[in-house]
Amino acid sequence: MPILELDNLSKTYGGTTALRGLTLQVEPGSVYGLLGPNGSGKTTTLGIALGVLRASGGTVRWFGQPPTAAGRRRIGALLETPNFFPYLSARQNLQLAADIKRADPRSVDQALDTVGLGTRQHDAFRGFSLGMKQRLALASTLLGNPEVLVLDEPTNGLDPQGIAEVRGLVQRLASEGKTIILASHLLDEIEKVCTHVAVLQRGELRAAGPVGNILATADRVLLRPEPQAAAAVQQALAALPWVSDVRPEPDGQLSAALAPGHGPADLNRALFAQNIALAGLELRRRSLEAQFLELTK
Ligand SMILES: Nc1ncnc2c1ncn2[C@@H]1O[C@H](COP(=O)(O)OP(=O)(O)OP(=O)(O)O)[C@@H](O)[C@H]1O
Fold first, then answer.
1. What range(s) does the ABC transporter domain occupy (predicted)?
2. Global ipTM
3. pLDDT at res. 98
4. Residue 25 reports pLDDT greater than 70
5. Could you give phi then psi for residue 224, rounded to 5 degrees?
6. pTM score above 0.80
7. Where on the phi/psi map is residue 153: left (φ > 0), alpha (ψ -120 to 50), or beta?
8. Does ligand 1 come within 6 angstroms of the Cβ of 119?
């Protein structure tokens, strides 16, 4: 049974149509990404799913039935940054949040441990880095040990270190069996943490399915042949069935597409087997970005 089913959801705000007939299902254990540029309707979708916004049409089902208060307690959500008290400690802030949610107070310890703030639990919130603040926000979604997490742009505004922390945490929670629904405008983020993706554009679903099916395109590699070997390299590439679309690049370099399942190491080996040593070989994933742009054009 799907965790979440959205059927033909629509939403208009006055004259603005934010969602048009959105249908999707989230299966248990998946990390489901809603991917789309700003304004594509991701926050609206999550808001309707969580019952904080009213749909103009369509239905929401959680755990196989229309939304109920009991079902809602099985979901932890982070739609906007919670207001933590700056002078209270991480632990005190979570205890307050647990009180408000009527979550089991024992889940505070577990949440602190899970997000890696156990050793900093008595420090005041105001001294925390942005990454730690966001991890505390994630901890608050874990109160009551929900089986589903709904996160809107969980890495927004973080520095690279904070982004890595939060992504690592999402992956760990998923590996522990939680179903995670996550909105992001970052292709790279969806690719790194999600198993499934729905691509939204101007409130419409453009594509949905396993990340590998939707976003996987041939990787491109950039090769630098030694000048005297340029022709031999071209010839060798032409003979490899899993190499296509060979193009000249500046400075005597070449780029080529590799079929799925083949990487730069395979290419290196294949050329070396023909006595060709490259002066340079680099993976380029521009094609993925291009595919996303194509989907949302
Ligand atoms: N309260 C509102 N009143 C009027 N229009 C709104 C409101 N909330 C959202 N919209 C409009 O609905 C559309 C979808 O917005 P939404 O916030 O769901 O997109 P999003 O993909 O989450 O983008 P972002 O990442 O920028 O929040 C946009 O055109 C937005 O301007």
1. 4-227
2. 0.94
3. 93
4. yes
5. -120, 100
6. no
7. left
8. no
